[in-house]
From TrEMBL:
<keyword id="KW-0813">Transport</keyword>
<feature type="transmembrane region" description="Helical">
    <location>
        <begin position="177"/>
        <end position="193"/>
    </location>
</feature>
<comment type="similarity">
    <text>Belongs to the binding-protein-dependent transport system permease family.</text>
</comment>
<keyword id="KW-0472">Membrane</keyword>
<keyword id="KW-0997">Cell inner membrane</keyword>
<dbReference type="Pfam" id="PF00528">
    <property type="entry name" value="BPD_transp_1"/>
</dbReference>
<feature type="transmembrane region" description="Helical">
    <location>
        <begin position="46"/>
        <end position="69"/>
    </location>
</feature>
<dbReference type="GO" id="GO:0005886">
    <property type="term" value="C:plasma membrane"/>
</dbReference>
<feature type="domain" description="ABC transmembrane type-1">
    <location>
        <begin position="106"/>
        <end position="294"/>
    </location>
</feature>
<keyword id="KW-1003">Cell membrane</keyword>
<dbReference type="InterPro" id="IPR000515">
    <property type="entry name" value="MetI-like"/>
</dbReference>
<feature type="transmembrane region" description="Helical">
    <location>
        <begin position="235"/>
        <end position="257"/>
    </location>
</feature>
<keyword id="KW-0812">Transmembrane</keyword>
<dbReference type="GO" id="GO:0055085">
    <property type="term" value="P:transmembrane transport"/>
</dbReference>
<feature type="transmembrane region" description="Helical">
    <location>
        <begin position="277"/>
        <end position="297"/>
    </location>
</feature>
<protein>
    <submittedName>
        <fullName>ABC transporter, permease protein</fullName>
    </submittedName>
</protein>
<feature type="transmembrane region" description="Helical">
    <location>
        <begin position="102"/>
        <end position="129"/>
    </location>
</feature>
Length: 308
């Protein structure tokens, strides 16, 4: 009897040790002294701060130099806000600069933003939705075609587009720079495609369409009343990114002999580089403002969804 009792106690102790061994091992692996944990967190914080500081210096020093250049004359060293005053008043005669070309290029670029975004959305959104519903294989083909402009340099695109634009300008359309919208629609397609694809992959498109169709909704109603409210954030992302690309485009417009903002800035820089640099800073600030606005809108939408 005593032997049996001792054996039972030993078995129970062995089972208890076996049961508690994994927990003890896990606690030993996951737990560490508070001082060591604090040192590790402090070290990681220092590394992150250093990387962020280097990145900000890399991006901020050139911008700071540009800002100083706009206020300090490169020859005389005199500090002045005249270049900025010329931009905001629209009169650069006191500095020997004709700003009419600048305003013409700016107006053309803004018009190109509107027309190009409309063309891009009309081409991409319906085609991507249909391919997402009907055929995933076709969706991969569309993705390959849409991202192809990323692999082709802009100057190579101009070589192919040059004869087409020459024929269009002579026989069909005029030489108005607004017709650059077709070339720009090709340039912005990879960025817009990726933004819209993220929105399509984040929702169950097929289930939404089947549910709406089972309730008697027509396909146009499904598209505009069911899918578009779920995709508007992605469409907004594609729009903002496209605008940023269009405002910074120079190669295609210059080689095709058309006027836009960047070509106007280059021409203005030949007569007054300070005004040209100041306007470049404003254009860059506008692009950054668009991207920051997009991030703020996305965060606001995410919070509203979490609250509801």
């Amino acid at each position: 009897m005593a032997v049996n009792t001792i054996t039972a106690v030993q078995d129970a102790a062995t089972a208890s040790a076996t049961a508690t061994t994994p927990t003890t091992a896990v606690s030993q692996q996951s737990g560490m002294p508070p001082q060591l944990r604090a040192m590790r967190v402090h070290k990681q914080r220092i590394i992150k701060t250093a990387i962020l500081a280097v990145t900000l210096l890399f991006l901020g020093v050139p911008l700071l130099c540009m800002l100083i250049f706009t206020m300090r004359h490169p020859l005389t060293g005199r500090w002045s806000l005249d270049p900025w005053k010329a931009i905001f008043t629209g009169d650069g005669s006191s500095l020997g600069a004709d700003l009419s070309t600048l305003w013409s290029g700016l107006g053309t670029s803004l018009a190109l933003c509107v027309v190009t975004v409309i063309i891009m959305l009309l081409l991409l959104v319906p085609v991507m939705v249909i391919a997402h519903i009907r055929s995933r294989r076709m969706e991969r083909v569309i993705e390959w075609v849409a991202t192809l402009p990323l692999t082709i340099p802009a100057i190579v695109l101009v070589v192919g587009l040059g004869p087409i634009y020459r024929w269009l300008s002579a026989d069909v359309l005029s030489t108005n720079p607004i017709w650059l919208c077709f070339a720009y629609a090709i340039l912005v397609m990879p960025y817009a495609f990726r933004a819209i694809a993220v929105g399509l992959n984040s929702i169950d498109v097929l289930t939404l369409c089947e549910a709406a169709r089972s309730l008697g909704a027509s396909w146009p109603r499904v598209f505009f009343r069911v899918l578009m409210p779920n995709l508007w954030q992605s469409i907004l992302s594609a729009t903002f990114i496209s605008i940023s690309v269009i405002l910074g485009e120079y190669t295609v417009a210059s080689l095709l002999g058309r006027m836009n903002l960047q070509v106007a800035l280059y021409q203005l820089g030949q007569s007054n580089s300070q005004i040209s640099t100041a306007m470049s800073l404003l254009a860059l600030f506008f692009g950054v403002l668009l991207l920051v606005s997009l991030d703020l809108i996305s965060d606001a939408m995410r919070r509203s969804k979490e609250e509801h």
